[in-house]
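Dear colleague,

Thank you for sharing your sequence with our group. We've completed the structure prediction you requested, and as agreed, I am returning the results in plain text so they can be pasted directly into your records. Please verify that the sequence below matches your submission; if there's any discrepancy, let me know and we will rerun it promptly.
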Amino acid sequence: MASDDMYICQVNLAEQCDLCDESTVFRCEECRLKLCNACSNEHRSLEPNHDLTPHVITESESRCTSAPCRFHQDRKSDLFCQDCEVPVCQLCIDTGRHGDHNLKNIDDLFEEKRKIVHSDTKEMENILENELKQMQKRLRILVSTSPSKYEDLEKIVLQRGKKWHDAVEKVVKTFIADIENMKQGEKGTLQQLTQEIENLISCIQDYVKSNKEALDALEAEKILRYKIQADDLRGKIPEIVVPTPSFTEFEVAESKLVHENFGVLKSKVMSIDDERRSSQVLTESHSTVKLMESLKQLSTIETGLSAVYGLTCLENSELWVHGTDNSIVRIDRKNRKLERVKTVSFDGNVGISVNPEKELVYTDYEDCSVNIMKKSHTHAVIRLQGWKPRAVCFTMDGDMLVSMCSEDEKRARVMKYRNTQAIQEYYHDPKGRPLFPSGDTALYIAENKNSDVCVAVTSAHVVVVLSASGTVRFKYSDKTGKKEFRPMGLATDSQCHILMADYFNSRVQVVDKNGKLLRNIEGHGIHLPLSVNVCNYDNIYIGDSTGKIKQIKHLQ
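Please find the predicted structure tokens below.
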């Protein structure tokens, strides 16, 4: 290692801006940021009340790269041995002490390492502020809110049980009513038969009495005119058949009845997987996943739509797509129509996604509703008052994010739902200012893998990226295109890249999690893209105004 007696001499080295690699000129006293000329101008426009003062390098902030040789104290070291990690002088080289070791000019190496230390420090600060502290806040929220989701789950199961009890009670009441009707019906019939028998007995008794009187009196004329009555009376005697009511039980195992028809509880005990975490850290630190130098188009899917306003992928190589009409269609890669869902809204006013159970969830703008499709049947799970839903997506925790605008289309917000209960609102920043610009607010939404919430505000030509707690991390608005930046579809991949459909420039822009532009996906027949989705090993699906979907690979 380097000698402990390495000394420092004075050399002025300009410090880097905290937001880019240029030299520091100003310092923001409120934010304590070091800024170059360009960044200071932008900071003034964003924070006009902040105090920017010229940055002066103090004596303690100066650095020097001269150091004595470890083995020849009277000689100055101009080189640094990177194998031995010590400064060396010319005499060390002449005596062959460092042989074919990797030697580098000490001034050049110091400047190179100083930049590395500066960059690594910024990255650690970024990890601390934007990831760990946000994660800490999120965990605090989760610790306080975690019990409520299980309480909500218990309520749902109990409500389901009550529905079953009510349904069983209703069935029982129906059976009891049917039995009562049968009892009253049989009673009425028996009473009617009793009356008929009584009438018949009385009639026969009259006939018998009359006949006996005629016989006793030898009434010749009456006897001569007599006609047989017994046969006719016997025909009036009813046949009494009394049914025996019964109830037949269906033999169904109770456990099977409950588990197959009552519902499904998807349970997964949360645990800390240290092995997986170590593997993940190792993978992130030495990740081989990087951008391909050349994009690879995998396929073109003909949807049959005039435009693909929305798309979301399923794991079985199928897709849900929405075009200009009032329907959402499930298709396969050969454009076979497998299922169709009718909506109230037309022309892209429908947002589509799939929940963790891979069920279709969609927003219907004109109907002010969020809907779910279960077993080929759809029903509204949320109905909004005073707001109209735009887009929908699901977080890694299984919560639902819904973007929406006010009925006058002048205000915008994002709501987070757990089941159907609103648990968080993204509307204003800590100072009470709107997070999203006013105007005709078409909002596309996606959650990044670092839990950032990404919102494309189409009419304002900007993508707003929020932390999970709702703090604005950055705003992205591109100026490099030949035409204005109009973000439409939005998606993220496994590397925390944010993908934005840049409509007027017929391309998809890819930026990193901090808003740095990495590449443009253009060409490949992409024309006025309207939607973008990432699935199946980070393959990108781009739906455009021709009604086609391009499947493109951009990571290796």
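Summary note from our side: Confidence is low (pLDDT under 50) at residues 1-13, 59-65, 273-287.

Kind regards,
the structure core
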